[in-house]
Design a protein that fits this description.
The protein is an alpha/beta fold and 217 residues long. The chain has one domain: Class I glutamine amidotransferase (GATase) domain (Rossmann fold), CATH 3.40.50. The radius of gyration is 16 Å and the shape is globular.
């Protein structure tokens, strides 16, 4: 029996939500998921979200109504997986602290903006999420996140690279890939994926393939 996944895409167009949603859907279909893509948050209020094995948020910023958010929180708590990347999951609905609590972090800055060259450091090349992977270079936004201390981290990137007032704090290793639990549900986040071209990088595709499969019920 095919697993079922829901991708909701929208919000700020700079993250190419339509293109990214179709890339992620393609990966899921290769893994024998039946995938529904929606461009309205009302789907969260109208569908039985507990019928999905995986939900993939791909909605940067924007606002969400409580009748849309609460079913999402409840479905993940009941065992539906949650997995996503970059601002599509880590910078959605900035006013909704319950959503951020579930995700495990929130974007706050990308010093130097786009085009920063930085290393992604794999912490455990034997874990199913990162098995066989080695450190790699990305030229993109480098996400500075506020992160839940409950998360388990599988890849990091080191700041500072670009200039900024934060430099006076010294070096920090920022989580790029993490997991956590929300009730019975698995939550997976990857900070990479500013635009479709970055999502298509072999390393990012592999991280998302592994992460979406891991998070799924």
């Amino acid at each position: 029996m095919l697993k079922k996944a829901l991708i909701f895409q929208g919000g700020w167009e700079g993250h190419e939500p339509v293109k990214v949603a179709h890339i992620l859907a393609g990966i899921l279909k290769e893994e024998d998921f039946q995938v529904k893509i929606t461009d309205t948050l009302q789907t969260l209020a109208e569908d039985d979200l507990t019928s999905y094995d995986l939900i993939v948020p791909n909605w940067t910023q924007g606002t969400i109504e409580q009748e849309q958010l609460q079913p999402l929180l409840n479905a993940v708590a009941a065992g539906t997986g949650l997995a996503g990347l970059h601002g599509g999951m880590g910078d959605s609905f900035r006013n909704e602290v319950d959503y951020q609590f579930m995700v495990g972090g929130q974007w706050v800055a990308h010093p130097g903006n786009d085009g920063v060259e930085y290393q992604v450091h794999i912490l455990d090349d034997d874990h199913p999420l990162t098995k066989g992977m080695t450190d790699f270079t990305v030229v993109s936004e480098q996400y500075y996140m506020h992160v839940d201390p409950a998360v388990k981290v599988y890849a990091t990137t080191r700041f500072p690279v670009a200039e900024g007032s934060y430099e006076s704090n010294g070096e920090v290793d920022m989580p790029v890939v993490w997991t956590k639990k929300w009730g019975k549900g698995n939550v997976y986040y990857c900070g990479l994926g500013h635009v479709a071209e970055i999502v298509q990088m072999p390393e990012v595709r592999q991280l998302m393939r592994n992460g979406m499969k891991w998070a799924s019920r």
